């Protein structure tokens, strides 16, 4: 009974945190503090993702890992066949899984256990994927020594997974003060498959510095967002995935939004390298994320795009084959979700929220 009351109290605290309008980093740090009491762990990393592609773009960690860990993690997630990959959990709508359960209590079957967890002295791993309406907003990995995770512990995480997903979703639309002026030039980073840098343009140095500051990561290694798009490109080339492109969008610490994408380069005299493009995100690139972050339905998203085009209620009704009254009802719901009072404010909030006026043309 005492344990049940304690679990209920921690669940209530987690739900309150997820409704407290905290920025993503603070929210994840506070959630880890509460989860530690309910599901003890020795090491954790809590990643936010691009909700459209599911690629990781920034991690809060309980303690800094050895330098080799993140590189091995990305290789395992994208390039190895293993149990409980975040991508597979997302696509199969499986919010929580443990390594011991997935391997039938034979964790040595997992390359991740053999190559990463065992050298770190960890016994078991619990993973969670936080999704709403098929969009993935974040992933969590908890490692611990000693006892394996119990069904009760996994059940606790699953019981709060929906609230955490919603909290991460809301964090995407929090106002962010933009500091300084980001370069308008696209940065191009050329890397080999093992992520060795072979060339880069001048703008890359700025963007990589911003990414390291945002992730609080080791400057001697490439940031997670870069590793993610490269890893997914290779996975696509190997035919191991076909549902998303190797691209991600994220808001960096200065308040600017950044887009990353990866593509293969081929030349007659060199081994095929990979080009990673880093560029300021354009309003149209952010619109899908913003519409999902505000929880808009498919129909509401369609009407939002019609509003941006300047269409009248009659024209929207004709194009979508619904009545003008239904259009008005959808607009009322839209205004309430996005917290605006007019069509102009709606368009500005969805397409322009994260940009300075001079950046919109």
For the record, the CATH class of the largest domain is Alpha Beta
At CATH's second level, what is the architecture of the largest domain?
Answer: 2-Layer Sandwich
Predict the CATH topology of the largest domain: Beta-Lactamase
Structural class: alpha+beta
N-C termini distance = 61 Å
Number of helices: 14
Q: Specify the overall morphology.
A: globular
How many structurally independent domains? Answer: 3
H-E order? HHEEHHEHHEEHEEHHEEEHHHHH
Determine the mean pLDDT.
88
C-alpha Rg (nearest Å): 22 Å
Counting DSSP E segments of at least 2 residues, the number of strands comes to 10
Helix content: 40-55%
Q: Which residues sit in consecutive blocks of at least 5 with pLDDT less than 50?
A: 353-361
Strand order of the largest sheet: 2-1-5-4-3
CATH superfamily of the largest domain: GAF domain
**Sheet of most strands:** 5 strands, antiparallel
Residues in β-strands, percent? 15-25%
Structure characterization notes:
- The model is unreliable at 353-361 (pLDDT under 50).
- This protein has 361 residues and is α+β, with helices and mostly antiparallel strands.
- The chain contains 14 helices and 10 strands.
- The chain has 3 domains: 2-171, 2-Layer Sandwich (Beta-Lactamase); 187-281, 2-Layer Sandwich (Beta-Lactamase); 295-359, Orthogonal Bundle (Arc Repressor Mutant, subunit A).
- The chain is globular and about 65 Å long.
